[in-house]
Amino acid sequence: MWVIAIIYVACVVVSPSLAGIKELSSHFSDPKTDPKVVEEGAVDMEANPLEFHKENTVTNELIFDGFEDEDYIDFVKILAAGSDDYIEGDNIDEIATPAPDIDIFAEPSDPKIRRARLLRLFQGRSRLQRLNIINALFGFNLYRSLRNNVNQTDNILLAPAGISIAMAMMSLGAGPGTHSQLYKAMGFAEFVNASHHYDNTTVHKLFRKLTHRLFRRKFGYTLRAVNDVFVKNDVTVKDAFRAETKAYYFAEPQSVNFRNPGFLDKVNHRILRLTKGLIREPLKSVDPDMVLMLLNYLYFKGTWEQKFPKEMTHYRNFRVNEKTNVRVPMMTNKGNYLAAADHELDCDILQLLYRGNISMLIALPRKITGMRTLEQEISPTVVNKWLQNMTNRTREVVLPRFKLEQNYDLIHHLKEMGLTDLFKESGDLSEMTSEKVSINWLKHQGTITVNEEGTEAAALTQVGFMPLSSQIRFTVDHPFLFLIYEHRTDCLVFIGRVANPSQS
Q: How would you class 338 by CB atoms within 10 Å of its CB: exposed for 0-12, middle for 13-18, buried for 19 or more?
């Protein structure tokens, strides 16, 4: 019985002032030369998959040293190659209209209501945005499963987009029964069933499109993702799986010897470089009987549109719970900020913009004991409601500086969500290899730093919801949720909880 491991590594980093992180400009230039300025507003063009792959793929000899992640999307070559090879992701298809008599705010366990909510969210959205709604639904559900297994005072960090990419790539190797279960658990089946124009392949085409659209330079922020697939050297991978992972996920399987200590050294060195030194030696050891390993690296660095003046940062109390306070550095700024109030969930929402049409949403319960309700109810419908009801006015914002480092084994949580076959001997991965294999290790590791510079990581009924127009101060001095959204694609890149900013 062969063993598969999937390790998903996520990194978010904000500023050069923490953890010895280099200035952003130094990632794009020779240290002996003047740093280049990161440009904004790049032309919206994507690569031919084969050209893209040439810049992104590691050779079968596992030679990593010549690989530079900031160049893995070469826009000079992209523009020279001509127009986008796949524009279908931007299409807006006609979809079924939910019955008007269905109350989309009723009990969500009713499948008719769940479908009505989804179709309402899909109205007027492109195919790629619709897939990202599905990814967000999965991300919120996974967050809730994880939340139920940690202490209320623990910090949480997840990168739903990267996990969805890894699982979608795994589905290419799944036989019919396991594939069906995976698509259902991830929500891909609901997406496919939303339109007669869609089929299972549409999901993979859109993930390829998401890679083109999301993980690119010159938008004012840095967001990179790389997939690697390593296969035991005496196991044969089927040609179709090899070709599809290469075409859709830019991850051609590489034959390796998992018993060779040099494998760990090279992979850990690669992760260290791609995450700018934030994740060190995530692979402590490897089961020598492992047959296949999937690695997904994600790195984000964003700069606030309105930076927090460092001289305004002072130590203040942060209320971890009703009995415990901690002293933490609290950043302060005054400017025009978008915010809203959700009276139904009894929380306030602040939007902090990064350069490049990406932002962090802060959801702050009004009561310290209100986090549980907010976590239970958070959904794409709720987030959409927040974004539609924000007002822009001058506010004073007080926000803790924080750094989170989290490491999870996701198998238990994915099983709770109905994804079980991949982790059992009875699972079917016959589209990947003729060997009998299963997954026994699925890791998710991430770090996020937030400081003064930035972060280096359908009409709906307005029930109990009002714009936050009267509040002129937004003080984040007790546990809160944060969401990082890329707004061109409606992609939920990260979700997390800061319960105690004094602990990583």
A: buried
* Ranges of each domain in the chain: 310-403+459-498
Q: In this structure, are residues 421 and 177 in contact, taking their beta carbons and an 8 Å threshold?
A: yes
Alpha-carbon torsion (162, 168, 171, 177), positive or negative: positive
- Which tokens in the block code for residue 268? 């850990």
Calpha distance 124→302 (Å, rounded): 29
Residues in the chain: 504
Spatial distance between the Cα atoms of 132 and 199, rounded to a whole number of angstroms: 16
Interatomic CA distance for residues 241 and 223, integer angstroms: 27
Residue-wise pLDDT tens digits, 295-352? 777 777 788 888 888 999 999 999 999 889 999 999 999 989 999 999 999 999 999 9
How many angstroms separate the CA atoms of 159 and 142, rounded? 10
Q: Decide: residue 306, CB within 10 A, 0-12 exposed, 13-18 middle, 19+ buried.
A: middle
3-class SS at 135? helix
What residues contact 61, with CB distance under 8 A and at least 6 apart? none
If phi > 0 it is left, if psi is from -120 to 50 it is alpha, else beta; for residue 82 that is left
Token pair 């719970």: residue: 321
Q: What is the CATH number of domain 310-403+459-498?
A: 2.30.39.10
pTM, entire model: 0.80
